């Protein structure tokens, strides 16, 4: 019998994104995107995703969706929203993986942000290098998630939400985000 050494595959660099307030417009505190008609892409978000895909980055959506846990929509309805989002993004900008937590805050789930469960699941399933990866979010729980999971760089997309956790970078819109990403990530995937 001939033994063949398994080729070690280099872990991939990823960019993780929060959904509401970053990819699509925030429905507002205490409100939820409950149908496709409530979903509107943030201006410039598709261009950012397209550029990152072109650079070879693995794109991951990580989002708390307690609207499912509250019974406002079903998991199937949320999946339909994400399927429509992916179809609208098309192959040049679609996410490579989508993770969501339906858990309520009081459930203290290891999958609900800021706990690292969704990111660690993505890392295990897709061979991701978290130390060289980035996360973009608009809430403290996103920045805290990056720290808890060992993601190398956290970017805060400024919103009306209060700030308690410092991010590595702060941007006001997707034009600034794209410029930041081009400065730091060109040709490094």
Structure characterization notes:
The structure is a single chain. With 189 residues, the protein is an alpha/beta fold. The chain has a single domain (14-185), classed as 3-Layer(aba) Sandwich (Rossmann fold). It has six helices and six strands. Helix 5 links the parallel strand 4 (134-137) and strand 5.
What's the CATH topology name?
Rossmann fold
Portion in beta strands = 5-15%
What is the straight-line distance between the termini? 38 Å
**Largest β sheet strand count, sense and barrel closure:** 6 strands, parallel
Overall SS class: alpha/beta
Tell me how many strands there are: 6
Average per-residue pLDDT, rounded, comes to 94
| Tally of individual domains | 1
The gyration radius over C-alpha positions equals: 17 Å
- Provide the spatial order of strands within the biggest beta sheet: 3-2-1-4-5-6
- Which regions have little confidence, pLDDT < 50, spanning 5+ residues? none
CATH class: Alpha Beta
| Gross geometry | globular
The CATH homologous superfamily name equals HAD superfamily/HAD-like
What would you say about this model in short?
With 189 residues, this protein is α/β, with parallel strands linked by helices.
Task: Furnish the topology, listing elements before pairings.
Elements: E1 14-17, H1 45-55, E2 58-64, H2 66-69, H3 75-89, E3 97-101, H4 117-126, E4 134-137, H5 140-149, E5 153-157, E6 169-171, H6 174-185
Parallel strand pairs: 1-2, 1-4, 2-3, 4-5, 5-6
Helix pairs in contact: 1-6
Task: Give structural attributes.
189 residues; 6 helices; Rossmann fold; alpha/beta; six-stranded parallel beta sheet
């Amino acid at each position: 019998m001939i033994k063949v050494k398994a080729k070690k595959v280099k872990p991939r660099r990823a960019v993780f994104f929060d959904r509401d307030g970053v990819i699509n417009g925030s429905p507002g505190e205490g409100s939820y995107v409950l149908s496709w008609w409530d979903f509107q892409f943030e201006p410039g978000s598709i261009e950012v995703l397209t550029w990152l895909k072109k650079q070879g980055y693995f794109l991951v959506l990580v989002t708390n969706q307690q609207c499912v846990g509250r019974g406002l929509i079903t998991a199937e309805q949320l999946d339909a929203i994400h399927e429509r989002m992916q179809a609208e993004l098309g192959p040049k900008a679609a996410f490579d993986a989508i993770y969501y937590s339906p858990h309520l805050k009081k459930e203290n789930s290891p999958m609900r942000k800021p706990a690292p469960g969704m990111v660690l699941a993505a890392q295990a399933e897709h061979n991701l290098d978290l130390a060289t990866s980035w996360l973009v979010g608009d809430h403290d729980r996103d920045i805290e998630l990056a720290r808890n999971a060992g993601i190398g760089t956290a970017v805060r997309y400024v919103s009306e939400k209060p700030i308690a956790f410092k991010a590595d970078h702060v941007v006001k819109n997707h034009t600034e985000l794209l410029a930041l990403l081009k400065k730091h990530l060109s040709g490094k995937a």
